[in-house]
Design brief:
By secondary structure, this protein is mainly β. It has a domain of about 70 residues. It is built from one helix and six strands, in the order ββββββα. The radius of gyration is 29 Å and the shape is rod-shaped. The chain starts with a strand and ends with a helix.
C-alpha cells in the first residue's frame, strides 16, 4: 500500500432565498508512489578472473520487482580496487512504487589465489622461495 493524502470537502447548495437545499460530503484520496529502500552490503573481494555472480550482486528490498546490475553478472572485473558496482530496481507495481538506484559499491579484484591464503599462504610462498635458493 502506498502512502495517501486524503482531503474531505463538504458541499452545500442553497437556493436564492438562502435555504439549504442539499449537502454532500466528498472525500478525495490521492496516492503517491514511494521509492523502496535498497539494502546492499559491500561485497567481499574476489580473485581476479572470477566473474561477478549472485554472491556480489545480491541487493534486496521488501518490494517485488526486477534488478539490473552494472556491470552485469558474468563480467570479469579488472584487477585492483575502486571499481564501482551499481544496481537499478524496477518495481512490479509501478503505480505504488518508483524505480530506485544504488551506486557506489566499491569492489576489489585481487591479483591471485595466494593473496587469499592469509598468513599460511605467505609462509608457504616464503618457504618455497627459501628452498629454491638452497
Amino acid at each position: 500500500m502506498s502512502p495517501t493524502a486524503t482531503t474531505t470537502y463538504t458541499l452545500t447548495a442553497t437556493n436564492a432565498a438562502g435555504s439549504v437545499t442539499a449537502t454532500a460530503t466528498v472525500t478525495i484520496t490521492a496516492r503517491h508512489a514511494t521509492t523502496p529502500t535498497i539494502t546492499w552490503n559491500t561485497p567481499a573481494s574476489i580473485i581476479y578472473g572470477t566473474a561477478l555472480s549472485a554472491t556480489q550482486l545480491n541487493a534486496t528490498t521488501t518490494v517485488a520487482g526486477t534488478w539490473a546490475y552494472s556491470p552485469a553478472a558474468g563480467t570479469v572485473l579488472s584487477a585492483g580496487a575502486g571499481q564501482t558496482l551499481s544496481v537499478t530496481f524496477t518495481p512490479t507495481d509501478t503505480a505504488s512504487y518508483n524505480s530506485a538506484t544504488r551506486d557506489g559499491r566499491d569492489h576489489r579484484a585481487e591479483g591471485d589465489a595466494a593473496h587469499h591464503l592469509g598468513d599460511a599462504g605467505r609462509h608457504r610462498r616464503r618457504d618455497a622461495a627459501e628452498r629454491a635458493r638452497s
